[in-house]
Amino acid sequence: MAVPHRLEAPRRPRSAKAAPEPAPAPDLAEKALAVHRLLCPVYGCPIPYFHALDPVSELVSSLLSHRTRNADSGRAFKALRARYPDWATLIAAPTAEVEATIAGVTWPELKAPRIQAVLTAVMERAGGLDLGFLAGMEVAAARAWLEAIPGIGPKTSAAVLSFSVLRMPALPVDSHHHRVAQRLGLIGPRVDVGPSHAILRAQLPADWSAQDLYDNHEILMLHGQRVCHHRNPACGRCVLAEICPSARLA
């Protein structure tokens, strides 16, 4: 089975023992908490989880979602579930058939063989298509285990741990979250989405729960979708304007 180019940004090779997260500057840690406090009342923390999938299903869902609208990736996931009775059947299916099934997502010609390759790697490394054992690992070690599989980057590993029924305290960062963090100055202008995961997580309290971190991701993502747009951000109605250097320049 041919493996396509990576869909997530390249990352440094990782061993089973993850490197420690960088220590944040105290002012940035304070700012990250201020952002959280200001946005939570706007978007209604605690925010209900939108998925209750097993971790392997969440893995498939996350791989489908890269650079794809939620509605389109959701339809593709449902189409896979309808066509294949289990993920082992999907692995054995003709790749062209899988590609046709997920035709509504971005880059189905890359995602179909990638999903099959990732699921095959999970089966080989875990002895089956069950990632429930990750619940017994520290978050850093669980993420390192997942990211050792080609095609799984920081966003996907965090999504599997956070969004699935594992409900582990990992912080995913999507493009909206990343954009808001950059405009606020929480990360530098040249920090890509992948490396931003460790930086943004380190700015938040180490003892935060899975719900706390899920809320943080969701409120920054929603703020990016509804206010801090890619083009023409609505700075005039932004509750973060007083602490946002980008707003002061707008």
Mean of all residue-level pLDDT scores: 91
Domain tally: 2
Question: From the coordinates shown, what is the CATH architecture of the largest domain?
Answer: Orthogonal Bundle
Oligomer: single chain
Order of helices and strands: HHHHHHHHHHHH
Give the strand content: under 5%
Instruction: Give the total of beta strands.
Output: 0
- Helical fraction: 40-55%
| Structural class estimated from helices and strands | mainly alpha
Rounded to the nearest angstrom, the radius of gyration is 18 Å
* CATH homologous superfamily classification of the largest domain: Hypothetical protein, domain 2
User: Biggest sheet: strands, sense, closure?
Assistant: none
Q: Measure the end-to-end span.
A: 50 Å
CATH class of the largest domain: Mainly Alpha
Poorly predicted ranges: 1-6, 9-17
CATH topology of the largest domain: Endonuclease III, domain 1
Total of DSSP H or I helical runs spanning 4+ residues: 12
Protein name: Ultraviolet N-glycosylase/AP lyase
Keywords: 4Fe-4S, DNA damage, DNA repair, Glycosidase, Hydrolase, Iron, Iron-sulfur, Lyase, Metal-binding
Family: Belongs to the Nth/MutY family.
Cofactor: [4Fe-4S] cluster
Keywords:
250 residues, mainly alpha, Endonuclease Iii, domain 2, Endonuclease III, domain 1, 2 domains, 0% strand, disordered N terminus, DNA damage, glycosidase, metal-binding, metal ion binding, iron
